[in-house]
Design goal:
234 residues, Rossmann fold, Arc Repressor Mutant, subunit A, five-stranded parallel beta sheet, 8 helices, 41% helix, 22% strand, transcription, transcription cis-regulatory region binding, phosphorelay response regulator activity, CheY-like_superfamily
């Protein structure tokens, strides 16, 4: 089954370059030149992943991502001409799955897109995991990729879902940042601690009663993170 990627950028030459490489890799491509056009496309078409430039007219990439995350879970890669940690951290906080700075190597973009598509869709189709995982007042539902806290549904991005699955399948296990990155991102760890920290922070905001003093996702100083075991529950 071919996957469909939406390319959102107001620079036609960038869209054409990516289209050339992605179609060669067997992907179907849709295009949008600004955020408003992209939003209409997302609502009308079946899209598996979106690549969104930050700087665009009418509706920029950050505004589009905020709007998209109110209704959709599809993975998103942000593009930016500014290679600054603040842009990357903001995008990840808003629910982006990856961030690529311009200028980029199109082969790297293709590789990242394929890696995200594999872990988002193939993992969900083939992984043999229980339909639900339950610890404390949290229930992780693998059918809908959501977490329920005290019966209230909390939507997750694909990365948040992968992180919680890893944690809740092995409560009490200490994961190093490298182990989390290579297990969840299906990629070689390249010392990108900010990416992991941002996604952990977003998860804590969703599942913890007091995110600044987390109970479930605990930091093991100097090593990584672990999830609370059932016998540690109050």
């Amino acid at each position: 089954m071919n996957r469909t990627v939406l390319l959102v950028d107001d620079e036609p030459e960038i869209v054409e370059l990516l289209r050339l490489f992605l179609e060669r890799d067997g992907l179907d491509i849709l295009e949008a030149g600004n955020g408003e056009e992209a939003w209409r496309c997302i609502r009308e078409k079946k899209i598996d992943l979106a690549v969104i430039d930050i700087m665009m007219p009418k509706l920029d990439g950050v505004q589009l991502l905020k709007l998209l995350r109110t209704e959709y879970k599809l993975p998103v890669i942000l593009l930016s001409a500014k290679n600054q940690d603040s842009d990357k951290i903001l995008g990840l906080h808003l629910g982006a799955d990856d961030f690529i700075a311009k200028p980029f190597n199109p082969l790297e973009v293709v590789a990242r897109i394929q890696a995200i598509l594999r872990r988002t869709y193939e993992f969900n189709e083939t992984a043999e995991v229980p339909e639900q995982l339950s610890i404390g007042n949290l229930v992780l539902d693998h059918r809908d990729c959501v977490i329920y806290k005290d019966g209230r549904e909390i939507p997750l991005t694909s990365i948040e879902y992968k992180l919680l699955t890893a944690f809740m399948q092995s409560p009490g296990r200490i994961f190093t940042k490298q182990q989390l990155f290579e297990q969840v991102w299906s990629d070689y760890y390249y010392d990108d601690a900010n990416t992991i920290m941002v996604h952990i922070s977003r998860l804590r905001e969703k599942i913890e009663d007091t995110p600044k003093h987390p109970f479930y996702i605990q930091t093991v100083r100097g090593i990584g993170y672990k999830f609370a075991k059932r016998d540690e529950l109050p």
